[in-house]
Specification:
The chain has strands at 17-20, 25-28, 40-41, 60-61, 63-70, 78-93, 98-109, 120-127, 132-141, 146-156, 162-167. By secondary structure, the chain is an all-beta fold. The strands form 3 sheets. Strands 1, 2, 6, 7, 9 and 10 form a 6-stranded antiparallel β-sheet that branches. A hairpin with a 4-residue loop joins β1 (17-20) and β2.
Length: 192
């Protein structure tokens, strides 16, 4: 297992993940403002003998990357963006190749340079599996009031693949110019 903090189970509270050698499972979380680590795994028998052993191991990426791009302009009163997963894949059992999921939120605080900009991105990683999740995307102002929200349904996470969600989060404003029509005829005449 690479990419994991294998010695500190408390690292999960730091937005990382860990490998539990006793139970042989990997826990992976992306806490607000932090990206989960990239994880590579493989299972194979290994017999330790008296002589040196050299062998090639090809690790496979376990994680899937989620890339959300909000195409429209981030309003100036926006403070944060949250992605709420109803089925976030977070635990992989090495013994059985099973993946377990839970409800989880990944949040990002918006900086001054994000406001007024287009194509804002949130990138996070999850354990790839056959699991799908609805992702509720919410933008809040500084008072915690919802500015905009949308839901992407049945989003899948395949190991070693990127899932890309792209679209508009904020309602399009209808521009309706104020048009006045002068119905009076001009006094100018064209005489032939």
């Amino acid at each position: 297992v690479t990419g994991m903090n294998v010695t500190n189970p408390q690292a999960i509270g730091q937005g990382n993940g860990y490998y539990d050698a006793v139970n042989q499972h990997i826990i992976l979380y992306a806490n607000p403002g932090m990206e989960a680590p990239d994880v590579f795994v493989d299972k194979f028998p290994l017999e330790v003998k008296e002589e040196n052993l050299t062998s090639e191991v090809n690790l496979k990426r376990l994680t899937s990357k989620l890339e959300l791009t909000i195409e429209d302009v981030i309003p100036n009163n926006a403070d944060s963006i949250e992605l709420k997963f109803n089925n976030y894949p977070y635990t992989y059992y090495l013994k059985t190749d099973e993946v377990f999921a839970t409800v989880h939120t990944v949040g990002r605080k918006l900086g001054a340079s994000d406001k007024g900009a287009c194509n804002y991105s949130v990138i996070t990683q999850v354990i790839g599996s056959s699991t799908t999740s609805d992702i509720h995307i919410i933008c809040y102002d500084s008072a915690g009031e919802v500015i905009a929200e949308k839901t992407a349904k049945n989003v899948s996470f395949v190991p070693n693949k990127r899932t890309m969600l792209t679209g508009k989060l904020f309602d399009e404003k209808v521009v309706s110019p104020n048009i006045n029509i002068d119905t009076n005829w001009s006094d100018d005449k064209i005489e032939i």
